[in-house]
Amino acid sequence: MNRFFAIIILLALAITMTAIATSWILTTYHSMMWKPEILKILSIEMYRNETDSSWYLKLEVENDGEGAAEIYKIEIHGIETININPPIKIASGSRESISIKLSKEYTYGTMYTVKLYLKSGTVYPVLEKIIKT
């Protein structure tokens, strides 16, 4: 009977060690393959286009990282969230000017918080913008 328990304990230890080694190998491999984006927001502007009476958000961004940055959602805190499909891709080492049509009304002289959500899970950064006339 003692031999039976010893075999079960050794088998449980072997399975546990295999699971630990597998998870360690997978996480180490993933961290070695991950090449983050480093997104710089050079300028941000919210303006009203007088021709179609719509508000727009214009971003000037640059990706200094090794991986491509993919913006899939933009949030103007407390007002609206814009899901971007397909995501806006900014290649490594490139600079892009992005203009997005907004659906809500905004007020001149008001400060708004804008967040960029990337597919990598990063939220870039919280930007505060005052709309000027």
Q: What do these coordinates show?
A:
By secondary structure, the chain is an alpha+beta fold. The chain folds into 2 domains: 1-34; 39-130, Sandwich (Immunoglobulin-like). It has one helix at 2-33; strands spanning 39-49, 54-63, 69-76, 80-90, 95-101, 111-118, 123-130. The protein is elongated and about 85 Å long. The mean pLDDT is 86.
How would you characterize the largest beta sheet? 4 strands, antiparallel
* CATH class call of the largest domain: Mainly Beta
Low-confidence stretches: none
Helix content: 10-25%
Q: Average pLDDT value?
A: 86
What's the number of extended β-strand segments? 7
Distance between the amino and carboxyl termini: 86 Å
Sequence of secondary-structure elements: HEEEEEEE
The tally of structural domains comes to: 2
Question: What is the CATH superfamily classification of the largest domain?
Answer: Immunoglobulins
- By DSSP (H or I, 4+ residues per run), the number of helices equals 1
How large, in whole angstroms, is the Cα Rg? 24 Å
The gross shape turns out to be elongated
The main sheet orders its strands as 4-3-6-7
Q: Beta fraction of the residues?
A: over 45%
Q: Do you know the CATH topology of the largest domain?
A: Immunoglobulin-like
* Class from helix and strand fractions: alpha+beta
Oligomer: single chain
Q: Give the CATH architecture of the largest domain.
A: Sandwich
